[in-house]
Amino acid sequence: QVSPGLRTPRLPVWLCSISGRHSVLFGTDSRLLSDWKAERIFHLYFYSGQQEQTQTAHLTIDTHSHHWEEAQREDPCSPRKRHPALEMAIRTKWAGATVSWNGTDPFF
């Protein structure tokens, strides 16, 4: 039997399979589970367990950013327009959100 703590987590946790690798994306703010207003600007942490990741990545998610103000003339295939797979996975829950890696080089 599954314990109630596993059925109803106290903190938001997502198990991910990105580019064929398993990882975990989690938050430390329990309001993300019950209060949609907490989804304005919030922090998530990402850990893949891979050798190339030496510490947990701290991400800041902004769901009300003005992504449409980006340069319209830029080629969508240019390297500046490409986003890491992790950011695309986050946008499956929060469409249009911007992701700040807070000084960490984006990976995945």
Automatic annotation (TrEMBL):
Catalysed reaction(s) here are: Thiol-dependent hydrolysis of ester, thioester, amide, peptide and isopeptide bonds formed by the C-terminal Gly of ubiquitin (a 76-residue protein attached to proteins as an intracellular targeting signal)
Any idea where the Deubiquitinating enzyme MINDY-3/4 conserved domain is?
5-103
Pfam families attached to this UniProt entry: MINDY-3_4_CD (PF13898)
The EC designation for this entry is 3.4.19.12
Which GO BP terms, alphabetically? protein K48-linked deubiquitination; proteolysis
Kindly report, in one word, the top-level EC class recorded for this enzyme: hydrolase
The GO terms this record gives for MF are: cysteine-type deubiquitinase activity; K48-linked deubiquitinase activity
Q: Which InterPro entries has this protein been placed in?
A: MINDY-3/4_CD, MINY3/4
Keywords, A to Z, come to: Hydrolase, Protease, Thiol protease, Ubl conjugation pathway
Q: Which family does it belong to?
A: Belongs to the MINDY deubiquitinase family. FAM188 subfamily.
Q: What does this protein do?
A: Hydrolase that can remove 'Lys-48'-linked conjugated ubiquitin from proteins.
Would you tell me the protein name for this molecule? Ubiquitin carboxyl-terminal hydrolase MINDY
Q: What organism does this protein naturally occur in? A: Dicrurus megarhynchus
